[in-house]
Structure formats: C-alpha cells, structure tokens
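Q: Could you write out the predicted structure for this multi-component system? I'm mainly interested in how the pieces pack against one another.
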Amino acid sequence: MTETVIHRSNPGIDPHFHVWGWEVPIYLFLGGLVAGLMVIAGARLLLMRPNQRQAMVCCTIGPLAGLALLSLGMLALFLDLEHKLYVWRLYLTFEITSPMSWGSWILLAVYPALLANALVHLPETLPSVARRIPILTTISDFMLARPRIIILTGLANVLLGIGLGIYTGILLGALGARPLWNSAVLGPLFLFSGLSSAAAFLHGILVVSMPDDERPAFADFLISTVTGWTKARPLDTRLAPALAQADNSFLTIEFALIGLFFIGHLTSTAVHQQAIGLLLNGPYAAVFWVFVVGLGILLPLILQHFELLHRIRHTLAPALLVLGGGLALRFIIVAAGQASHWSSLASH
Amino acid sequence: MRYGMVIDTRRCVGCMDCVVACKTENNVPEGYCRDWITETTTGEFPTLRHEIRTERCNHCAHPPCVHCCPTGASHVHERGGVVLVTPEECIGCKACLAACPYDARFVHPDGYASKCTFCIHRVEQGLEPACVSVCPTRCMHFGDLDDPQSEVSRLLAANRAHSLLPEAGTQPSIYYIN
Amino acid sequence: MPAPALSRRRFLRISAGSILAAQAASRATSAAAGAWSSAFGAKPGTTTTTPTFCDICFWKCNAVASVRDGALWKIEGNPSDPLSRGRLCPRGTGGIGAHTDPDRLRTPLIRVSDRGEEKWQEVTWDEALTYIADKMKGIAERHGPEAMALFSHGLGGTFFKHTLKAYGTPNISAPSFAQCRGPRDVGFNLTFGEGVGSPERTDIAHTRCLTLIGSHLGENMHNTQVQEFAEAVGAGATVICVDPRYSVAASKAKYWLPIRPGTDLALLLAWMHVIVTEKLYDADYIANYGYGFEQFAAYVQAFTPEWAYPETGIEPSVIRETAREMARHRPASLVHPGRHVNWYGDDAQRSRAIALLNALLGNWGRKGGFWVPSFMDVPGYPYPAYPKPARGRLDNPDEKYPFADEAITTGIRNATLSDEPYPIKGWMVYATNLLHALPDERATIEALKKLELLVVVDVIPSEIAGWADVVLPESNYLERHDDLNVEYFKQPFVALRQPVVESPHDQKPGWWIARQLALKLDLGRYYPWEHIEDYLKYRVDAAGLDWATLKRDGLILGPRPPIYFEEGVPAEFYTPTGKIEFYSNQLAEHGFDPIPRYTPPDPGPPGAFRLLYGRAPMHSFSRTHTNRLLADMMRENEVWLNATAARRLGLRSGDRVRLRNQDDVLSDPVLVKATQRIRSDCVFMVHGFGHTAKGLRHAYRQGASDAGLITRYKTDPLMGGTGMNINFVTLEPAEA
C-alpha cells in the first residue's frame, strides 16, 4: 500500500496534467486531413493522364480546401501558443530532434505544394474564377505543358502529405513522458486516419455535387443554398465508388493499426499497460470504442461496403461519420495521453 | 563537468524551505513553484515507511524537454549540463511540459516555459542553489557529479542512492539517499 | 504566589574583558559574512542587506534581509547566528510575504457597529490613541487601573507591558504559559529547579538517543532544534517517537510507538519501572544529585510494562526494549520535554515524569542531554518605578494553582466573566489571536462582550481584531525596531531588530504606539527617550557593547562558555533541597502527588474520534495564513483520518467533511486525508486554519479551525494550564 502526496500545485500540471485543450486535437485532425488530401491529390497527378484528371474534385477542390483547412489548423495551433508574439522563433532554427520543428518546416513546404497542385486544373474546375483572373489559365497551361512539373508537384504532394500525416502522430509519439502516446504506431495511425478522413471528405463533396437524381434532396438543398460553384459542375461521378473504395481500404488499415497500437502497449512495460488501460477499460474506453471505432470506422465501413455493392445510394453519412471519428480519435488520444504518466508506478 | 544534487532523504523533514527560498530568490509567481515536496508512505499501520523528497527539474543527461523543443529555447547550458529555457526564444507550445516525466515545468504567466535552473546565476558566482543554501536539515548537496572528489560524488560512492524514474531513460542528475 | 524556588534563574555575568573579546569575535565573523548596510535609500539596480532578527515565531533567528531595487527581495539566515546557523526555517524565508501581504491592517480603525461585526471607521493615530486613553482613564477612575489587562505575545510586546505597568495594572499575561509550555516548565522546575527555557536547552545535536513524546520536530519547525534533529538523525542516533500519529519525526525513528492518546504518563512510569528495576539508571549521578530516590524507586515498582500495556497499547517487550535503548546511550540520551504540552490536564505531572526519566538517564547538565545556558548582562533602561497596584494579579485567586509562576490567560478571562476577585473592564491584546489561542472561544466571546474597552494591536486583521473597539495596525517586524534580544542560550548573544524597509501604509511600530499611548495617558515620565534607538543605544552602551557593531552585524556574540557539568559548570539545582527531586515535598505540602500518578483518560463517546492538533512547518500559530508565500506552501489544512476508519465511514482522501464535536459545534468543511499514518481512535489537524475574520481574505474559511472545536478543556491543578486534547468529534460529509 502506497500513499503518495505531491505538495505542488502548478496550474495545468496539478492535480492532473492538462496543458493541451481543444486547439491541439483540432490542429492534429486538420493536419491529418490535409495530409490525406495531399496524398490523394498528388497520387492523382502521378497516376492519371491529364484527360482523366480533368476537373476532378480531388485534384483541385481537395488542395484548395486543404489550403483553407491547414490555415484553420495553424490558427488553432497558434491559439494554443502561450507566447504568441514569439512564434517567428520557429523559423530561426531547425531542431533536428524536435518533431515540432520538423512539422513547422514541413508546413512551410506544404503550402506551395498544395497551391501548385490546385493550380494545375483550376481553370477547368472553377472557370468563372479563371475568367476573372487570366493568369490562372496561363499558369495551368504552363504546368500542363511540362510533365516534369506535374510529376514534381505530384511527388511533392504525396511525400509531404505522408510526412505531414506521420508527423501529426509522431508529434505525440515522441513524448515518452506520456506513455499512452509513446508508440511509433501513432504516426501511421494518424496518417491513415488522415487518409480516410480525406477520402471521406472528397467523397462527401462528390456526393453533394452529384446530379440531382443521384444525390439526396437534403444535400441538394445544402449545396444550392450554401455554395454556388458545384451546381451543374460536370464532375466525374465514377469517382464516388473509387473514393468509397479507397476510404474503406484506409479505414481497414486504420483499424488494424489501432489493433497494433493496443498490442504494442499491452506487451510493453507496466506503465504502458496502465496507460492503454485508459482506452481499454478506463475512463476513456467508452468514448473511444463508441465514437472512434464503432461510429468512426466500423459503421462507415459497412455503409460504404453496401454503397459499393449498389445496395444503397451514396450519401453524406459515411463521410460525416469518418470525419467525426477522426476528430474523436485526436481528442481522445490527446486527452487520455495527458492522463497517462509514469509516476504513479514509481516505487522506491 | 556535470552539476547534480545528492539529497539525503533521511534528514529531510519536508518543511518546504527549499520551495520558499526558490520562490523568493527567483521571483517565482504566486501559485507556482519550481521545486516541491513529494511524500510517499508505504506499508500499513503501524508498520510504515516514509520517504520525503525535495524534487525539481532533474537536469537530465538525456533531457526529452530539450530534444522536443522546436525553437531551441530549451537548451543545455555550456557549464555542468544544466537544462535551461531562454524565455525570449520560447513560443509556449508546451511540448516540453508534455515531454517531462517529472512534470517539472510549467508555463510562466508571462507565457514561456519555466522551471528550476539549479540557480545557475548563483552557481556561477560560486554560491549554492538557493534551495540548498537554505535547507535547515542540510539534506541537500550540490556539486559536480563528474568530479570523483566532489562532495556529491563521495556521497554517492558511500551510500545507496536512487534517481527518479530511471526507467524513463532520462538519466537524472539528482540522486536520493534513503 | 509562586514558591521562591520556582522563580530562580541561572545568571552568568561576563566581565568587561570577555565583552571585548566578544566584539572582536563578532567583527571577524561579520567580515567573513560580507559587509552589510542599511537598506534605506537603495538606488535602483542595487541590492542592499540589513541584519535583523525574525519575528514569525518566538525563536527569534537572526537574519539578513536583502532589498533589491527598493523592494524587499529575500531573507536569509545570519551566518554568525548560533540559532539559525545561517539558515532560516520556511517561515523565516517566507517573511517577505508578511511584508507584502495585501490583507494587512493599514490604518487605525474604530468600531462603528456591534462588537464582532467588523465594521470600522478609519481614523488617524491621534484619534485612535485619544479614544483609547480616554477610555483607559475612565476605567482607572471608576474601577482602578488593575481593571485593564494586557495579553501580549512575543518580544514586540515589551513597550506595551511597560505602558500598562506604568498605568498601574499587574494583569499582564500571554498564552505561551497556560496554553503552551507552562506545564513543561513547571514540571521541570519542580524536578531540577529550572525550566527548559526557550530556546530549549536540549542538546539534540550530541544525543545518541532522542525520545520524543508527541513532539513532532520537523513539523514543529523550531529552527535550531530541527537542524540538530537532522544532525542527530544523520549521525545515526536512535529516535524513539511516541505519537498516535506517524509524524515526520516518527518516520525517522527506529521505534515508533503509536500510543493510545492520553496514556503517556503510563508509558513513562513503565519506562522508569524498567530502568529502575533493571538498575539501568546513572547511580552515581543520582547518588550525587538526587533527592528522594528510594521513595521513587519503591513507587515505580508497581508500574510494570504489563500494567502499562492495556493502557497504552504498547507491547511490554517494546517498552522494555526502548527503555534499555535509551538507558544504553545515557547520559547522551534525551527525552525531549516538548513545547506545546497542554493536552490532558495532568500536563505538569506528565512533564515532571519526563523530567524524572531524564534524571534517571543522568543527562541534566550533560553532553547529549540538557546544556546549561547563559546570557550577556545587558542592563535595563532606568525608568521611574512603576506604581504599586492596589490589588494583586487576579488570574490565580487564592493561589488556587500554587505552581503557576506566570499569569494565566484563562484566569483573566474567568475574572472578566465573573467579576471575581475584582472586575476587569478593558483588554489590550498585542499580537496574539486569543480566539485561536484560548480554548472555548465561546467563553472568550462572552468575556469580550462584557468589556468596556478592547484594543487590539496586530499586523493582520485577526479574529480577535474583529471584536475590537479600536484596532491599531502595527508595522511588520521587517519595518520596525523592537527591544534587544538578549538571548539565553548555549552561546549567549545580543541581537538587534531594525527596519529593513518602510511600512507600506499608515502602520506604526509597537514602541511608537506604546509610547504615544503613554503620553496620552499622562505617563510621559516613563518614556524619557524619544526614539527607540535612544533607548536601545542606552542599553547597549550600558552593557559595554558597541552600538555601531550591533547595527552593522545584527548581533554581538558572547564567548562560548562552559555548558556541561563535565566542562566545569557547577552542578546546581535550584530546588528547595538543592537536588534533583525524585520526591517532591513541595508537591506533597500542597496536597499533590509527590511522584506523578497516572489517571486513565476519558475514552470519549463511542464512535467519536479524539481531536488532536499540531503544527505545520510553514505556518506559525494562526498568524501566517495570509502570507501569500507561505499560503502557497499550504493554503488549507486537512483532517487526518485512519484509512481503515475512513473506509468504514465511506470517506476518501479529498472528500470534504465537517467535524461535529461533543458539544454539537460544527466546523467548516475540511479535506479528508485518509492515511495509514494515524491511529483509528483519533483525528489530527494542523492548528491555525479555518479563519472567519473577513479581513483575512486569502485565509477566509480555508480549512477548518481546531480551536473552534476545542470547547472543553481540563485545567491542570498544579499550574492552571488548559489541557485541550479532551475533545471528541464525528465526521459528516460536507456539501460541496
């Protein structure tokens, strides 16, 4: 029997360590989502001929949305900083051992890569915008005329996307002081969660922009009132099954990685076993299994499976579930990680 | 040279004088502390064992807080391996707080990560850290762990000592005799 | 009146030659410690230091305060100080927080509504002092000056005592006697002819076996003692700790004896039985210095460890083993006399039993036992003689408590309530929060309500200040001079308290207040000096010491004289027989047990826990809880409850409960500390929390007040001390 009393009450540290609130999980989620969008958009550039890619949602809308989402994520991260005026200090140095330093430099490279990717097919996707800003067409033509630039852009998107996705997990995984995070699996887990979120995101956009007869009435209403640009866009409806297929693959891999995450902890030290207990049967178990695994992975897997079998129509539901699950994953991992620690098992 | 502390828990009464001295010496704001007391009681009435430890940043030889810092604000001082934070370089991302298994850091109300400095400003003047110099039980000893002739090295050689969470792999520079 | 033997004290007069030597020694040490200068007029960017001595407790450690850029920065021990040995305790180190405390009293206040409602009008010093002087003159005219009483704690009260004596009252008292160390000093006085003094004359540093009886050194942060305790522990001395609670000291002990509360005297008798029957005592010492040993030896025959076992819960084998252990190390074996020993109403006799056990170990005047103190002869100021009061002290009518050699606070309270032997109409209270210090605060409040005048001089708006007619804000100890500390110690010294910083508001030093009041009372002839420095300089000059040196160094050390019999101190005992009295004729003559007798404690109502209280190292009395630095260390107290008992009650650490005592008094909510570290028949709280004075904003209702639950007390028949560990509580969940 051990009684431990720590006579300390530093804000954020005692009695429970809690220094990261909503900002960091939001940032990690959006970072993962953008990473997924980059990989998918980059892969499209690399794997498909220009005429196949024309005006496709994932090649233009994905990167454009990525730019916005990433900025939102960076804003969340900025809001989390306690010494905001000093944020420029990130870019006076490169700290090779610091995932956050890697991340801040990767993010710097992500913006031009995303932008380049968006510009390739922007005139076809958004002709009204292109008409008003003629230089967009010039740039697009310039790039399309040079396959090497396209390949480079695609490669940059895929590689930076993978880097960004893994980084969002490693950011936590490198913090050995919080045993729940202390797993290299978090890197690929967050990457695949990001990929599935990105596929779901694009799938969702596609669903709501399908021709009237193929899309649900509610989405029709939503689209027509909230936006104007997708209305009557000739988007490739064959992409929807492909995205659903991709999403299901990512979800399956994510599910497997969660299994590995658990196995890794359960076969590690007592400290790690205790940490994973938070998700297994502890205070975070219910939300984790219901929101991340049940609603965020298994249910959309099933729904999209039936979509692919043409048993049901493509709807927004799986997309929303997957995105919700990805968000929940970041929130739960960030919170539970902060609740995991070494010291309770310290015996002397 | 590696600065470290050897603390004889047998003498410590947990009076927290070290904490108060740190707070005045370093102007630590109200509600915060850079060092603290941890008490562990093991056993059942009436067969008990008790250890009182004065704890602080362990100035680890493998400091995870330094490794994760994205700006280099957290760094290892050129003398004695003391882990320090430069407030003007810190962005307040709190990665170092999360990286420290001892929860030794906190965010200063002015926005930067803060913690024990081993009173390096005193040490460089040839003084002991404030906590050591004030301790009424003289349970704390400060010196160069790399110098076999130093008081801390001799104490370590002569006594059974442990560090905190050695399994975390941080290689702390503070040892406790019990 | 006390028997003559009780008031005798050992004086050591030092010659002029040794004074010069002392000055030289002092200069040398101060040079080594660095040059100090006055802090006033500090330039920005500079640090200046001023030596002074601490006032957060009564230990009076010498300190050096640093002012940086005009602001008080830190306080450290004075390296040449024999008390602090250069290291203050947390309270001393945290003294900065007493100066900067935003809850301090700022200006004189006069009450504008009913007593205790804490509604005030801010007034000038002249208005406040005129008001008090008029009231005091009225009391003197109608009831005689004896109808004013002064309650005073600490050195700062010197000049208030002076003014009140000049005014003509003999009724001056402090809780430090009847509510604290009185029984101990009486018990030792009856045995050795001397008390143990303050700082205690215990040679903990050199002891090989330290026995602590309810004395939680380490939590009780009396600086020199704690330093020496750590030294003794570090040197491998055996510690035997008798305490129902696994205190910090118990955690350092080879033997922890978790005794049933209230049965210490049974254990002491059994220990003495073992030492006597096994002839483990110091026979030569007792033959030389003892009186009545045969009767004593015969008396203790009956108290076998087997007899003590059911009383104390301590196994006979453990009693024997510990008795042998303490005897094995004699004379470097010390049974600590404790300090706050007002527990069960038999405290003077229990303290006498401790004295007798020490006598068996032959440690009085011996290394590792009790050294012999001395002090430097510093003449007093030549004031005119005080008027002789028409009536004597009223706290101890008819010498009901014949061995009370100081005034009994609760005796003055009783007289205030009963008007017997004569009425008390006015109280002046200096630096003691009587509502937390005296047992049964309801009785204190009843007495306060009867008064024509209540004046409180304090630094913070304490509970007693809340009841005052006039509150006078005193400068903090870092902002004022006080009288010299002429220390009675193993190495004597004279120390100076001098201002380090200025008072932040309209506070005034005690000497100024007391003097101005005397002037208003037309007692100016008692204050021939204008500034306290004139007074201090007079005394220092008269002692043949150098004023400039004292100001620069903060203290002047005397030579380290012999302090043990073996070093040549004559073995003198100021008892009637001139010996260590194992058998006390004085006690027999007054109808008391000449050798201590054990009475079993009242077990209390079934299901209730005996309420025990004690100290925390970072707080003093109830006076430090708004000091932000110290409150950061401990903002509220907890009630320690045995973990098994807690489980039975469905309570866990961190739950909040209220305590209800046997008289249905309910405490404020307090956190539970469910722990293995305490017996299951008692609970423990740190004293001084649970403030209800509104002005103590940072401490207001933080934790619970033990004092509020101490509605009952048992009076010591020898000396009038108030045994306070006789209250019982039950715990009930508190709504959040």
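A: Regarding packing and overall arrangement: Chain B touches chain C through 35 residues (CB under 8 Å).
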